[in-house]
Amino acid sequence: MSLGNNEKKMLRCMRSKQENIWTLKELLEITQWNDQVHVAGAGKSLDENEFVETIEKHMKFITLGTEGLKATENNLLEKRIWDWILSQEENNRTMDELFKAGFERHEVGPGIGLLKSLGVSIEKGIFIFTNEEEITGKISERVRFIQALSVGKISFEELDSELVRHFSGRKNLINIEEYTVREWKLTEKGINIPDKDLEEIELIGEITPEFLQKEGWENASYKEFDINADTPIPVGGRPHPMQSLIERIRSVFLEMGFSEIEGNYVQSAGWNMDALFIPQSHPARTMQDTFYLEEPEKIDIPDEMLDLWASVHESGHDTGSLGWGAKFDKEESKKGLLRTHTTVNTVKYIAENPDNPSRVFGIGRVFRQETIDRTHLPEFHQIEGIIHEPNASLPMLISTLKTFYSKMGYPDVRVRPAYFPYTEPSVEVEVYWRGKWLELGGAGIFRPEVTEPLGSEWPVCAWGMGLERLAMLVLELDDIRELYQPDLERLSRMPIL
Ligand code: PHE
Description:
The protein is an alpha+beta fold. It contains 20 helices and 17 strands. The chain has helices at 5-15, 24-31, 36-48, 66-74, 77-87, 95-100, 105-118, 132-150, 161-168, 188-192, 209-213, 241-255, 269-272, 303-315, 330-334, 343-352, 394-408, 448-454, 467-475, 488-493, and strands at 21-23, 52-64, 121-123, 126-128, 154-155, 174-186, 203-204, 221-222, 259-260, 266-268, 336-338, 358-367, 379-388, 413-417, 423-433, 436-446, 460-466. The strands form five sheets. Strands 9-12-13-17-16-15-14 form a seven-stranded mixed beta sheet, with helices on both faces. A four-stranded antiparallel beta sheet has the order 1-6-2-5. Strands 3-4 form a two-stranded antiparallel sheet. Helix 1 (5-15) crosses helix 3 (36-48) and helix 5 (77-87) packs across helix 7. The model has no long low-confidence stretch (mean pLDDT 93). Phenylalanine (PHE) binds next to strand 16 and strand 17.
């Protein structure tokens, strides 16, 4: 066992007077430590290693309580009543007279109890006693006891135990204080330990690159580490829960062989809606639902594209559809807006790559004029994806989504018939969570009205789902706003996904 520097110092000091039994005060003086914790700590480990012996003394002191302090001024209650009784004519020693003499009601009750226990009795309302001297003597003893304590605390042993017991039974007259006092004494082992073992050694606490580059680190002594000691949990940075969820989704799709695509927030109504065969009269296209922009107010779209969409919307072009029948407004198509869904990205991707089979996904922010509440935000994220290839089919779409959700930890997925202007068939995707089916998004096969103007001849499996919905589910939130409030405390408690 190697002694620490504090232990060595304490031992060296104690060896200067080997025969001493050292008190805390003496040790503080000789070591010049200003904190008794050092003496206690070094003493404890020296004792454990048998260099010193700790002598513990349990001390008990008596001090005056609040009532006891009052008694030093006003005298003890029994003394005051007794003095009054003795000062009265025998037939005047009545309760009534006692009250008249100024004793309070709350004093008289306990006071009489005390006198009775000393041998006073009451007959026909008059205080009677036979042993005046004895009572006076006992009361004087009590008075002396209190007076002695008025100077300061007195050790239990020095006091009359009978009186201590008596006063302990009375409320707040005295307090009993108990201490343990330690003293330290050298053992044979402590006396005989060679001086050289008590030399102070510089202990290295911090190991720095500079220190390791110098000579001497091989033979240095190092401070011991207690690897089991409690330490504060460092609060450092961490990814926002939404960011880690996005990362996880990204890695699942990449693992499933999809490539990631991106797009801008600012889009034209043409690409965001017309390309998707959303009728220009559709209610979701109004200002109540969509953020239209003043800057850019219009976005250019190639004329060929506008002609195609006009033809499809008005009469179905040659897609086999009848179209919507209404007049198509090309100026409406050019309106600038904040994208309302990420389907605009996948549609543009098909237009740019009509002949290449592809499996792509995108994660991005979308914007809708929503009133903020527990489940709605005007700005949220969608996960979008397509499979664009000759054999794309509804079963392929469904099994792809099932695979995705089960990799995310939700193996129970079902689809229900739904409607979107741009898919046929259309489905709603639901996952089972805590006894409930929760709707997470929409999917379907793009209609020919969508794909043919883009130049594609293959079916397209397409889906889009809300990310915040999924986040609420995995983070077990019941208010979507919690995700975006700058409450670092709460965010740091959310699980890392
Ligand atoms: N765009 C739809 C939405 O925002 C989801 C969807 C995407 C539906 C692709 C079908 C196909 O809810």
